[in-house]
Amino acid sequence: MLSPGASVPFGYHAAMDNITHSFVGLGVGELLQRSLPAEPDDARQRTRHRLLLTACAAASNFPDLDLFLTKLLPPPLGYLLHHRGHTHTLLYALPQALLLLMMLWALWPNARRLLRDSATARAGLGVAIVLGFGLHLSMDFLNSYGIHPFYPFDPRWFYGDAVFIVEPVFWVAFGVPLALAIPNRPLRALALAGLALFVLGATWRGYLGWHSLLALALIGAAIATLRVTRQHSRRALALAAAISIGFIAAQGGASTAGRQRIEAALQAIDPASKVLDVAMTGYPAQPLCWSFVSIESNEGAGSYRLRRGMLSLAPGLLPVDACPAAFRDSAATDVAAEGIVLAAPWQGDLAMLRNLSRSDCHVNAWLRFARMPAVTQDAASDLRYAGTPRGNFTTLGVAGAAREPCADVPRWGYPRADLLGLALR
Hints:
six-stranded antiparallel beta sheet, disordered N terminus, 425 residues, alpha+beta, globular, 13 helices
């Protein structure tokens, strides 16, 4: 039986990392700048260049300021319910965009003068801010943590289950043209060397396979060749954007195919249970390898089951045990189907879960986040994050010491409303 706090190698991410947000924001801002008509003099062109890059990169990180709100609730509820919270919704993106615009206007005199005189700069700034916020929400959607962008009109969580938090494809695709655009030669070389060391270090530590390293090298070389031979940063950045979009599409298709295989294998193991959900975690730069957590319910038996495992979409080409070693789950040894291995399941009691959801307001609040809830009388953990480096940050103590009153609980939808049944209607 799997302990909710067991150390397992999937589920490392809680949100898309801010370095990735910055790379993509800077790259898209640079592409926008080079796609607009030039300003009439070099000084104004330089100001607009800095303004659009700053605005797009800042907007691409701005929603994560909700980390300052995590103290509104006791841990872990503050982080779980307020990060990826109101600032990650379309409605609350509007006041954030206005705040960013006011800050740029108030704190940047040269940009203020430019915006008074140039309609192109004003339009470019508006597009940069919209793109930045859109990029942040879109990229956060891509992993298994999820967002609820349509709140308060629709409180449901939406999960992309496609892209790992630290995705080197984005770093290489946008980092190479951005580094090559640095005018200072030593700084340019330093930026390229840092990017190369990051990718090589990730490979050496087992987060990337050598085949992924080769693919990243080819992506970087193609973009660099276009940038150097054509002397045209816009085409290199457009290629970076196209590669990133293509990678996301490939990951999305692979995630869907993998989920279907996993559901079929689980249903074959226990036809009496219903597969409610499979949370997919892609490996960095590797569409064939996946980790997953699944949840099944059996109303007749009054139980539900959580499983974790690994998947290779092409086991003949890349067996599961040949996927990147840093994410390998040593406990997943039970072969459920070709390319699918499982660890021992965790079994839960439906009646106890539903009773706690009614009688304990902290568990009720926690269930507004938990997608894969392993709940006992003592603790509740979301098994998507059982393998994070500092332990499962989602674990909530259920029994024992007195806790603070339940207040400031956002009204997000319950990810497992299908499991909780009538308990929360």
